[in-house]
Queue: 2 jobs
Job 1
Amino acid sequence: MHMTSKTLKDVRPMGRAMTDLHISEGRFVAGPVAGAEVIDCGGGLLIPGLVEAHTHLDKTLLGLPWYRNEVGPRLVDKIENERAVKTSLGLDPALQSARQVVQTVAYGTTHIRSHVDVDTEHGLAGIEGVLATREAFAGICDIEIVAFPQSAMMARPGTVELMDEALALGADVVGGLDPCGIDRDPKGQLDAVFALAEKHGKPIDIHLHERDALGAFSMEEIVSRTRAHGMGGMVTISHAFCLGMTDRAAVAILQVALAEAGIHVATTAPASAPVPAVRELRAAGIVTGAGSDGIRDTWGPYGNGDMLERAMFVGLRNNLRRDDEVELALDICTFGGARMMGLEGYGLGIGDRADCVLLEGETLAEAVALRAPRRLVLKGGTVVAENGRATVSTP
Amino acid sequence: MHMTSKTLKDVRPMGRAMTDLHISEGRFVAGPVAGAEVIDCGGGLLIPGLVEAHTHLDKTLLGLPWYRNEVGPRLVDKIENERAVKTSLGLDPALQSARQVVQTVAYGTTHIRSHVDVDTEHGLAGIEGVLATREAFAGICDIEIVAFPQSAMMARPGTVELMDEALALGADVVGGLDPCGIDRDPKGQLDAVFALAEKHGKPIDIHLHERDALGAFSMEEIVSRTRAHGMGGMVTISHAFCLGMTDRAAVAILQVALAEAGIHVATTAPASAPVPAVRELRAAGIVTGAGSDGIRDTWGPYGNGDMLERAMFVGLRNNLRRDDEVELALDICTFGGARMMGLEGYGLGIGDRADCVLLEGETLAEAVALRAPRRLVLKGGTVVAENGRATVSTP
């Protein structure tokens, strides 16, 4: 069924002139295919599928009764509370991740990178759950899984071994987390992360909330290992709050180092933390993706998986007002994330996978400002959402 | 018609236990009224009408073809571009303000404070337009008009006289703007603002974008004049970016001064500028309201008039995650704005005006996180919006 040929009639790819696009065997093709289903797009804007480059599918509380958040202010409060709540609420990572995926698909996201908790208390339950969801949603949304040591690696013996197992089971990416702030052992954690990546031949994505000089130190350590392991193009630093520090001369030096090492950045553009300046990253040639981070979880009530809304957040946080600037924000939530994740065949060109979203708006900037329900979402040429609703139902 | 008695059956006022509320002659009354229309609220959350405490009704581009923003980065670039664009687009302040009011009412806002441009190029066109809109929407949404010298006061001779005229015509509040940064004459501007307020017996609301020590200086000047003129409770400082400066000891001193002088703060919680910390303002006893600022105008493409979304922005900007913290954000967008504007009969108590919104959500925090279409909006007991749509149509 998903191999049906289609013609998207009267679309404006990336807001350019109206045209027809043709789809066959899940990809865009040059000309019309006999017997193709014709979908009248009414002059709507077409962009490639939105890319959710940083989220936590296993820990959302979507679909559950409201969780009253009374958690303390420190990072460790949130981490410890979450480990406990997973048990007290009996959180099912397969069910919860499926709920978030359905909502995310309805908003036009066709690719997700999800960090998934691995720890000595819950073991690989998260990884197994999200692996099941990835299987269940094959052909609807591509899901990349990062084995993520949320509760620390070196400080909780046994975690490295569990991450090794997770990668053998099918996790795609080696995660990491604040090697100084959380693990108090930057050399230990980063050596372990890069060793796992080398062993499994998989990329790396490290959460780095550490600020100012501390974050810069950890970042330098990641840069040197990326170079030593020849892993340019395969390492992402998520959050990278230290790139938001006030010492912009120090930031400029870090940005040159990241660009030269081929290290990518993922930002969630939080309003209350220092953040990488996306215009500077673009100017420095650093590949940048964006993500929702956790959605309605024990960390906080916000978030909905809408990557057009995230483009707005990137715009608001970076004071992007001009149309070309808003287009940069949207580019980060589409092509930027795709490059960060190394997606094959991403785009609206001939031969690219027919993963795309039909948007309301006269221009790309208006589409971001409006964030109207998505008129149509295709994954590999198959309709997976229409008028803001996914074609699959929420578990 | 708007005098019809109503019973709101099965509501949860402020998320508390389910009850019925009774309305007669536009206000909440203690018991059922014979022949009252019964509205089944299905256990929904009820809050008083949202309060838009800082916006610019006269300058939105809602309803017009997309405006491609190519404006320069400085404040003066935006101000000069806007003055020119008003002419080139033939912007009609009555029509534009009406468009924004209808959209705002659909989101559950029952009170608006709008700054309206007064300058020597466009004279009182903005004031006259928004006065017409206020008249046209009487009974649907209350609109307060600030005579706002967007293009400067002292630096553009004739502006003070125009503001004087605007106040005589019916503007409710005396505006001001960056007495150092824009006017380069803090003494001149602030003396003129307070003289106008004294002459007309009207309150003051001054835009203060000035940062750090400069903003603190202007704030001190506002404090001293507020005390000298006995205007405690009648002065608002909008934006107050200097309260977001890194020198928190200096901020603490300013906050004590504001609280003692009875000066209010309005914030729009922008993600890319330093902002007042709303938890600190609350602790200091400073009345705080929130607003959308400009909506889809020549300054930027964002904004929609949804004050539940603004509560989320206040929450995100101030890192409010716990339920009690999210409730603070919502309180600022309701009771806070109402106190800032000195509204009479605001609330859900017996005798209060029946201005209220029925929300989706198990709790107030969930309502903010969801921002679902508003199920019902009443103004003085009359239905003015249902299921996300205003009962009046958009001009």
Job 2
Amino acid sequence: MGVVTSPKQDRSRATRQRLLEAAVGCLAEHGWAGSTVSAVAERAGVSRGATQHHFPTREDLFTAAVEYVAEERSSALRALPSQDRRTVVAALVDLYTGPLFRAALHLWVAASNEPQLHARVTELEARVGRESHRIAVELLRADESVDGVRETVQGLLDMARGLGLANLLTDDTTRRDRVVAQWARLVEESLSSSS
Amino acid sequence: MGVVTSPKQDRSRATRQRLLEAAVGCLAEHGWAGSTVSAVAERAGVSRGATQHHFPTREDLFTAAVEYVAEERSSALRALPSQDRRTVVAALVDLYTGPLFRAALHLWVAASNEPQLHARVTELEARVGRESHRIAVELLRADESVDGVRETVQGLLDMARGLGLANLLTDDTTRRDRVVAQWARLVEESLSSSS
């Protein structure tokens, strides 16, 4: 962006990123109960003091982490070269089967029982959800002014979320590939007939 | 079934059912961390000793509870009078937005981090998943010998699971109703054209 930053600012930003990535990894592997600030600081190789400087509370750290990684993934998805719709459907579903989804899932489920997380995670989920929807509409070249198109795309993202959940305990890749191929076909037909 | 049971057996069965229902309620409201055997015994009004007689371990109690309630719901669904496919789609999605889904979700997520739960919940999820699929095929009068039909139905259940997750932190009813109406239309068209 041409903004000049000092070496100190660069180091601070790099530390912050290391913490955010460690937090997502920790959440994905150990769940909310196993994800303490100390565990993340140790995983990132950052002192406890520096960690608290960046993120005063556990809630700050983990909501920021899920948001940061979601934004990284969104940017990567937007940067993809233009592709046919079936490939786009597969790429969208892939967003829901990796460590980011696992981390987000642990955070959502924890938030359903922890009042201090609930408001923040609800707000985060709404923001990430809107952003995923915008990206999906763009990549699928879907015309939302046509009746039902918005809901077709939303249902596709709901299906992707459900496929992510089905992949939590076992490797569901083989079944998922077949489901995605079929629904990519149905979504393609539906969007083509409505454009 | 015409099997003669003694009053003692009847009482024992009633106690077991009370425990199972209390366990699902506890899991849905408080999550895995808040769901101890003592909390369930108290909620059900059953002594700790009687509870341990029925369910020697915490894992026994909660996996049995999710399975029991899933079976109750399946039976209720099978007992529905024959309906048009769009109504069936809505009824299937409803299965994933109530306390049973919340309880199962907490159990799945806990199992992803707790080795002693993992194998049992994986096996339970596979069994409940196959049963939901069978019921969906039957109610939708879907002909799985036709290419793609099996995957259409599976994707619909994956979408329902994703809608359940979207309903975890906020009441998603308004959005969900629109998505379900549109996907019911897509499923209806797809199944009609392939029969």
